[in-house]
Design brief:
6-stranded mixed beta sheet, 3 helices, about 150 residues, 8 strands, alpha+beta, single chain, Jelly Rolls, two-stranded antiparallel ribbon
């Protein structure tokens, strides 16, 4: 004779198991379909980009941080393009700044800018859509050159 307790347990166990399997599948699909952080490839090295695409994020930039880890960079996005100026206000470490046009071609490079350069400003001569800030020495180590097209 079947155990009535066992029959009751199987009634709620199957839907619960199905629910857990569906939730697990949904989680896997969410993780796989999430857009990964943008990256730029330089000289065989991938740099993860922190995107500053709002006025508040662009104003703050890297100010106040103690460092920018190797393998990371900050991408400033300007839409519409503009003559973009930067200074080293509240910076605590040196950086390389690279300006790019709409086709992501390098139009200006300022290597190894130290915090002591503040209040001097560094501006693009052409309207730019993008600016990248890297840890100091990145441009030289990866031989970034004027006219070079970057992909991100």
């Amino acid at each position: 004779m079947p155990n009535p307790r066992h029959a009751t347990a199987s009634v709620w166990f199957r839907p619960l198991a199905l629910l857990l399997v569906c939730a697990g599948c949904a989680l896997v699909l969410w993780v796989v379909s999430r857009p990964s952080q943008p990256q730029v490839l330089l000289g065989g090295n991938h740099y993860v980009l922190e995107v500053a695409d709002t006025e508040a994020a662009r104003t703050k930039g890297l100010s106040g941080r103690t460092s920018l880890p190797e393998g990371r960079a900050m991408l400033f996005v300007f839409d519409p393009p503009r003559l973009a100026c930067f200074w080293m206000k509240d910076m605590r470490f040196s950086i390389d700044i690279v300006w790019l046009d709409a086709q992501k071609r390098v139009v200006k490079i300022e290597p190894d800018l130290a915090p002591s350069t503040y209040p001097q400003t560094f501006c693009s001569e052409l309207r730019t859509n993008y600016v990248l800030e890297f840890p100091a020495g990145t441009a030289e180590r990866n031989t970034i050159q004027l006219g070079q097209t970057l992909r991100f």
